[in-house]
User: Fold Efflux RND transporter periplasmic adaptor subunit from Rhizobium straminoryzae.
Amino acid sequence: MPQSAATPEESVQTTKRSRLLSATAVLAALALSACDGQKKDAEPYRAHVGVEKAEMQPDLIRASGTGEIKARVESDLSFKISGRVISRSVSVGDHVEAGQILAMLDPVEQKADLESAQAAVASQEATLRMTSSLLARRKALTQTGAMSQQDLDSAQQQYQSAEKDLDAARAKLETAVEALQQTELRADADGTITARSVEVGQVVQASTTVFTLAHDGERDAVFNVQESALSGKMTPLSLEVAMISNPKIRAAATLREVSPALDTSLGTVRVKLAITNPPPEMTLGASISANVVLERQERISIPWQSMFSKAGTPAVWVVDPDKKVTRLKTIAVERYDASRVVLANGLTSGELIVVDGGQFLRENQPVSYSLEAAR
Assistant:
């Protein structure tokens, strides 16, 4: 059936009910908004940070350097006389035996001196024989009274003078023989030639180094170390050397010698390490590296990104695990390593330090956190 049209009074009542419902909805929405605001005021914002637990760990202070294997004993070989080199029988890297001829000088002058000395000895020997015969005759004549004592004394003096002259001539002959021998440069021990300073045809002066000979036997690891690295008084806890070409080849070592002289051009000091049971691969001249442990202590280290500053002093953010608020705590730095900062003091084991998200923190700020693995 068709519905009848609403009367004016009914239309007015319907409009009033619609407006009342709308007002009620608005009040309800305002009430909900007020509740949300109260909840937000009751629960302050908590920044989320990543933390790491501070732990005492063994701290090894290490040092390293590169050097080479050298003989424990080296000698510089040189001629004791001057002359022109006429032959050289060895080169750098050759192994030689004690007494082996390495080089020779032109011996013409020394041979002439030797012949002259030999002739002088022969002459003085003849003179001595003559004076000896004269002395014997005069002794016999003096005994028979045919010659005076004065003549006998004169013959005695001539004989003694001839003896002294012969001794001097023989000494010169020994010198000439030795000089001729010095024209040959010989190895003073078994070893390897590591340096050569002259060539055939060169005129050398006495005591000029011709070869450097590394004696067979014990070997040292030799390093040139910066003087500043030796300024501390720490005794190495352990020393180890390794081949640069093959780091798996290693050997223990001990400190044998620290040179008292400073290379002023480089600012370095020569340090020698004695190698314990060196492997055969560590041959003379091989390049090696040394790994030194100088000190071992229990210390706390932190990541670089956790470092902050408080009044110009190094500091880190720490989190109170009970109140879950932050605090900026000053620290003392022992040293800076490649990836972490080693602390001297300032933190205790078990404290939570902020390692991520600390850029915008403030004192006593509420935070939520997650424990991150130590990096």
In short: Confidence is low (pLDDT under 50) at residues 1-5. Residues 259 and 270 are 5 Å apart (CA to CA). The radius of gyration is 50 Å. Residues 108-144 form the longest helix (37 residues).
